[in-house]
Amino acid sequence: MEALRSEFRWQKFGFGGVSVKAFVSPQFLWSQHQSLFIAFRVLVAVYQLAWNITVPIIWGHPSFYRRAVDNQAKWLIYLSNWSFCVLTLYLVTAAVSLVAHRRQTQRQVADVNELVIGPLENGAILNNQPQLEENTPLPWYFKLTWLLQNIAYSACAFVTAGYWLVEFQPGFTIVQIFTIHVHGISLIIALADLIVAAPPIRLLHFVYPYSYFLLYQLFALIYYKSGGTNPYGGTHIYKSFIDWENAPTTSLIILLLGTVAAAPCLHGLLFALDKLRNKVAEKCCAT
User: Fold this and answer.
1) Are 212 and 86 in contact (CB under 8 A)?
2) Where are the alpha helices (DSSP H) in the chain?
3) Among candidates 196, 216, 195, 197, which has minimal Cα distance to 263?
4) Name one GO cellular component term (predicted).
5) What are the backbone dihedrals phi and psi of residue 117, each rounded to the nearest 5 degrees, phi first?
């Protein structure tokens, strides 16, 4: 209970008080092999980026969809695709930040060893790296990574649940590999990242996915008021979610539920999973 109470402090809204080690080292047994973690980060980021480039290009193509879209740019009016892009941005930012920080730290350690005790073998230099990381304030790029992580996790969970529970229509909706990636595999990637990566989930960070969902709802309302249409000429974006023309009350309820209820609840679930992951790591995989 003390750990839970400690989450409700003003500083917990921010991105301080965490060691750099949480962003450069993974959980579990391969924490002593950072090269594996770097490879994981880079490969997942490249994979997600490749799909994020492919999906908008293929989207609406007659070979894969029943109806052609009137404008490829309208791919960006959907929350699903916003969230897919946010996940990509997070994974790429995490990978680039990790690689850049690793190179910078290696140079700093080499410079310190050169100055203090003269040239050393590479292995000896790298052995001093953890001490330097423990004493380094969290750089801005890891804070950005942390912010994007909070948004991406909740967004992927919301999009996947919303699509398969509400939007999907058996017998009518054509499920393509692209659909599965945006509304399923993205969540699997997010959960895998949650298991492997070490940055903590703070309860009060729910304000960031909360703001993200609110921003999208405001965009959808402004888009409708400006005369925007979906790719098939209709006024709704999601017929079951957002239809300000024909179902304004439902859209308002979804707006309130999506921001007031869904964002905190999903983030709370991720917080619980984060704590469970830590317990498993402590009991089963401590080195």
Assistant:
1) yes
2) 2-5, 21-24, 34-58, 79-116, 122-127, 129-134, 140-162, 177-180, 186-196, 207-225, 248-256, 263-284
3) 216
4) membrane
5) -130, 10
pLDDT in tens, 112-143: 555 555 554 554 444 555 555 555 789 999 99
Token readout for 118 is 């003269």
Report pLDDT digits (tens) over 200-246: 899 999 999 999 998 998 998 899 899 988 888 888 888 767 788 88
DSSP class of residue 201 equals P
- CA-nearest of 219, 212, 220, 215 to 264 is 212
Half-sphere exposure of 258 (CA within 13 A, CB side): 23
Lowest mean per-residue pLDDT among 26-40, 182-196, 222-236: 26-40
Q: Helix 34-58 vs helix 186-196: angle between axes, to the nearest 10 degrees?
A: 170
* Token code pair at residue 278: 């830590």
